[in-house]
Write a structure and sequence with these properties.
The protein contains 20 helices and 13 strands. The protein is of the alpha/beta class. The two termini are about 35 Å apart.
């Protein structure tokens, strides 16, 4: 479906052409001075240079032609050459009526469907999720949902850190504490136990202790490195206990991600590409891409146009050990082989920008992916406390994500339970939905690359630019529609009329017309914050309409039905926006 601004631009383009000017000058945008007009065309300004003519003269000639257009109720010229436009009620409501009948409200799905792989999450196994994992999870999930909304295929991969020294540290610590476990008996030849000899709580204590010990105990660190090597070389006992670590950790990760309504199609990790690394290294050597530098195997990735130094991409360390670069490049190779994606999108901390620049250049230069495959890094900023520093617990430690979510759930339950007639079960269900909107909207409403302050009290507020405010607005719409049906109305019989009763009514219609343009921009820029901004504006203009208009009390039945149709459309668009952001609204609050 053609976008609203495109339709308006067609009208002005025709007027420019009829006045003897280039029709490309006729682009229309939303006015940045809503006190003066609704839309604006600045083409006469550009035309002045092109035609060596005063812009006011060009604008006046075009305005004369535009006065014949049914799209505009008024056309005025403002010095030095702005064309101020107000859209006609008929033209506006006709477009909204078309939107309400269209699939996804007029959002055009891609004619050529592409495959996207979204790499987000990235937690290390055997370590609890902390608040720093929040951004990759909610931003990545939203981007994946936006891609799918536009009609493309998207696969989310958590990309676990499950193969490096941290595994050796955990195994070494378990071995030190429980040396008699059969996993460490080289002569054991039976079936290994089905149950793990530890819980997720045990693992959460084991790793930090082992990590700290390795920094002061050289012998323990050597043992951890030896355990890592045994694991990676395929020792059956070490592989068996590693599988227990994986099972216990992944079950806990899934529970935490479920609480955030974040889902991964693939639960792959660094271990999944371990066996293909030798093949990749051979390919890089045989192709003349990789060479030895100071004992390490590297690939040059600098380019003549670089204005800053880009170091070589290291493939293997001097002792032959692999690095993150190695596993990431091998993962790219496997993804290309197994899924042939058109895009691979990485959602990580923005401080990894140089790292991904090296990896992407290496993958392209060496042909691990072909030229058509786009490699994209979306770098996000940090989550900070009110003091502007990285979010911490009261005792100064890194805040665990599970504790943060539980804390907000409990506070929201207290708010929801106060002064509302709800059963305990309903209050708990509603409070979790509202708390999730507070967390996700609080993060996603910020441009991904920027740091932001996690202000729990502000995010949980039912007023202002917050998730709960949006949910409250959606619940208000649901309530009105429910009452309409209870009073004998049939929502399916309602449609938007050309009658516009007040300014807030027209503002709501105009905000709705911008939906498909906004969602396309959010997709092209991988920018969930654009959906947040639109959704907040939509809620504001709807609430103005609600307060200024008698909806169910309207005596004119046809006008009442037009209002109801508009509410249904507003609700559908709001729910689609929230689905793209990864949360939803209850039926009542």
């Amino acid at each position: 479906m053609e976008k609203f601004l495109e339709k308006l631009s067609k009208e002005t383009a025709l007027a420019f052409k009829e006045a003897g000017y280039d029709e490309n000058l006729g682009k229309v945008g939303v006015s940045n001075r809503p006190d003066l007009c609704e839309y604006q065309c600045n083409g006469a300004m550009a035309g002045a240079k092109l035609y060596k003519k005063a812009p006011i003269m060009i604008a006046n000639e075009v305005a004369e032609k535009l006065k014949e257009s049914k799209a505009f109720s008024s056309v005025e010229v403002c010095p030095p050459g702005f064309i101020n436009l107000n859209v006609s009620d008929d033209f506006l409501t006709e477009f909204v009526l078309e939107m309400s009948a269209a699939n996804k409200y007029g959002v055009e799905e891609a004619a050529e469907k592409k495959m996207y792989m979204v790499d987000y999450g990235g937690p290390n196994v055997a370590k609890p999720l902390h608040v720093g994992h929040l951004r990759s999870a909610v931003i990545g999930e939203s981007i994946k949902r936006i891609i799918r909304y536009m009609g493309h295929e998207a696969i989310g991969d958590i990309h676990l850190g499950d193969w490096g020294l941290q595994m050796g540290l955990v195994i070494a610590a378990i071995k030190e504490e429980q040396p008699d476990l059969v996993y460490f008996d080289e002569n054991f030849d039976g079936e290994y136990p089905a149950e793990a000899p530890f819980t997720v709580g045990d693992l959460e204590e084991i790793y930090p202790k082992a990590s700290a010990k390795s920094k002061v105990d050289a012998a323990f660190k050597d043992e951890a490195m030896a355990c890592t090597k045994k694991l990676q070389d395929g020792d059956k006992g070490y592989r068996a206990i590693w599988k227990h670590i994986m099972k216990v950790s992944v079950d806990d990760l899934k529970k935490n991600y479920d609480n955030l309504n974040v889902n991964f199609e693939l639960w792959k990790g660094e271990s999944d590409v371990h066996d293909v690394i030798p093949e990749m290294v051979k390919y890089l050597k045989d192709g003349g891409f990789a060479y030895i530098s100071e004992g390490a195997l590297v690939v040059d990735v600098k380019e003549e146009t670089d204005t800053k130094e880009i170091p070589p991409c290291m493939i293997l360390k001097s002792d032959g050990a692999s690095l993150y670069n190695t596993t990431d490049l091998a993962t790219i190779m496997v993804r290309k082989r197994d899924y042939n994606p058109d895009y691979i999108v990485y959602v990580t901390d923005k401080r990894q920008e140089l790292y991904f620049e090296q990896v992407f250049r290496c993958a392209k230069k060496t042909g691990l992916v072909d030229k058509k495959t786009e490699l994209v890094h979306i770098g996000f900023g940090t989550v900070n406390g009110k003091d502007g520093k990285p979010f911490k617990t009261r005792d100064g430690g890194v805040m665990r994500l599970e504790y943060l979510v539980n804390d907000i759930n409990e506070k929201m339950l207290e708010k929801i339970s106060t002064g509302r007639e709800m059963s305990k079960e309903e209050a708990e269900s509603v409070s979790k939905m509202v708390a999730l909107s507070a967390i996700k909207y609080g993060d996603l409403s910020n441009q991904a690359s920027k740091d932001y302050i996690f202000d729990t009290e502000r995010f949980m507020s039912f007023e202002g630019d917050t998730g709960p405010y949006l949910l409250y607005t959606v619940v208000r719409i649901k309530s009105i529609l429910k009452k309409f049906v209870e009073n004998g109305g049939n929502i399916d019989d309602c449609k938007v009329m050309s009658t516009i009763s007040n300014a807030s009514h027209k503002n709501l219609l105009m905000k709705i017309t911008g939906y498909n343009d906004m969602i396309e921009g959010a997709f092209e820029e991988f920018a969930p914050h654009r959906i947040c901004a639109y959704l907040y504006d939509l809620a504001n203009v709807f609430n103005s309409f609600y307060h200024e208009t008698k909806i169910l009390a309207e005596e004119n039945e046809e006008l009442k039905k037009s209002y109801i149709a508009l509410l249904k459309l507003t609700l559908g668009i709001a729910e689609d926006c929230m689905e793209c952001l990864g949360f939803s609204a209850p039926d009542k609050m």
